[in-house]
Amino acid sequence: MTKEIKLPLTQKDIESLNCGDAVYLTGSIITGRDKAVKKLKEIIDSGEKLPVDINGETIFYVGPTFKDGKITSAGPTTSKRMDGIVEPLLNNGLKGIIGKGNVSKDVQDALKNNKAIYFAAIGGAGALSAKCIKKVDLICFGEYGTEAVYRFELEKLPVIVAFDLKGNNIYK
Amino acid sequence: MRTINALDIEKKLTDIITRACTILPRDVKDAIAKAQKQETSSRCKFAMDVLLENADIAENESVPICQDTGMAVFFVELGQDVHIEGSLTNAINNAVFKAYSNGLRNSVLDPLSRENTKGNTPAIIHYNIVDGEGLKIEFLPKGFGAENMTKLYMLLPSVGKKGVVEAVVDAAKSAGACPCPPYVVGVGIGGTPEKAIEMAKHGLLREIGSINQDKELNELEGEIKARINELGIGASGFGGNITALAVHIEKYPTHIAGLPVAINFGCNAMRKEEVVF
């Protein structure tokens, strides 16, 4: 059976999720990958105000393709490239990550300590993921192009819970 | 002497690049459908259901199968009795620029400044000059989830075939979910380091389900595929019994002191096209 979860995540939802659960995500998320996550980390480190409120947010590691301003393909990218730079975001209110593949022990600890959850989307399924995006708004770092921070309104994005609050890891 | 116009090549390639990025090849789709049936893990079945539905959406709506439309890699087999009217290299790069400026992701940048080159150029082109008047161009867009997991082992000759198997299994094990399984594994054995990697990549182009004409390599492919699937990685790395759709090996003579083995992965969106002029 596939669960449906509304975003932004509630603490109750996060606690109810178990590693291996198939979940459809519906609602608002932000995007970011290599360049943007690194930049957000640097801003946090410098003590300045972030250009996006990450409190309670879920971040999708994605660099979409666009055609005529519309997103046509938007699957997850490899999460481990954000190891070492995403921890400060988790320590500052980020509640969920959508990516693919295993994450480091440090990221797992940061997820657990901050009661946050890690979802794996299906790598390679960019066309289907794009169909789940109902609205797109640029938030910041527009100069990064595909790597900018966008807000997506999702409708039923299929994911699997990859790391839960109990510390269970699908990639163990 | 046969003459081929570079503009004709450019036009044809522009079409096949877009086609490759939006239509999953029949053999790959069939292999995923077969794996979906054989798989026992419900999570991996779920992942492969999503992949199959994704391929249909991409084909029906002419959108990229995967947002990582890769770096453009070409294998060119050029007959020495062909005269190209214009520049072949420019024709290939112009085709890449045109196709990738029209809805495919521009992922190529300067390796140090990280500044985007725009248009996903330059392409990676492997030229091979052969006898005759033919021109065959094979294309594969390579996403870097899989490329980053490429491995080269300079083995001791004494480890033999057994050592080759262990090296490939080790590469799959350390790659885990990163190359987006279920995948095709390209293996190059012998030659020099760069020759081994080039063979591993070229192996990805072979049709899934085709038999390696070299009996020894054919057996080795079967053994390695079984060993990788025993790792239990599964589709998307969710823990299942189908990780490799196929293992394709190419070999080349090497030096008495060496046994190079290279592994290159072709993710579940194993896109490829071929055009013959």
Key features?
heterodimer, A: fumarase, 5 helices, 9 strands, B: 277 residues, alpha/beta, 2 domains, 4-stranded mixed sheet, 24% strand
Supply the CATH architecture of chain A.
Alpha-Beta Barrel
Number of helices of chain B: 8
> Into which percentage range does the β-strand content of chain B fall?
15-25%
Spatial sequence of strands, sheet with the most strands of chain A: 2-3-6-7-9
Whole-number count of domains of chain A: 1
Fraction of residues in H or I helices of chain A: 10-25%
Distance between the termini of chain A: 23 Å
Rounded Rg of chain A: 15 Å
Question: Would you identify the CATH H-level superfamily of chain A?
Answer: Fe-S hydro-lyase, tartrate dehydratase beta-type, catalytic domain
Uncertain stretches of 5 or more adjacent residues of chain B: none
Low-confidence stretches of chain A: none
Instruction: Supply the helix-strand structural class of chain A.
Output: alpha/beta
The order of strands across the largest sheet of chain B is 4-2-5-10
In the CATH scheme, the class of the largest domain in chain B would be Alpha Beta
Overall geometry of chain A: globular
What's the number of structural domains of chain B?
2
Brief write-up:
Chain A is an alpha/beta fold. Chain A contains 5 helices and 9 strands.
Sequence-ordered SSE layout with sheet pairings:
The complex is a heterodimer of chains A (172) and B (277).
Chain A: E1 3-7, H1 11-16, E2 22-31, H2 34-46, E3 58-60, E4 65-67, E5 70-73, H3 87-90, E6 96-99, H4 105-113, E7 117-121, H5 126-131, E8 133-140, E9 149-163
Parallel strand pairs in A: 1-2, 2-3, 3-6, 6-7
Antiparallel strand pairs in A: 2-9, 4-5, 7-9, 8-9
Chain B: E1 2-5, H1 6-22, H2 26-38, H3 42-61, E2 71-79, E3 82-85, H4 88-100, E4 124-130, E5 135-142, H5 144-147, E6 151-155, H6 160-175, E7 183-190, H7 193-203, H8 215-230, E8 244-252, E9 259-266, E10 273-276
Parallel strand pairs in B: 1-3, 2-4, 7-8
Antiparallel strand pairs in B: 2-5, 5-10, 6-9, 7-9
Helix pairs in contact in B: 1-4, 2-3, 6-8
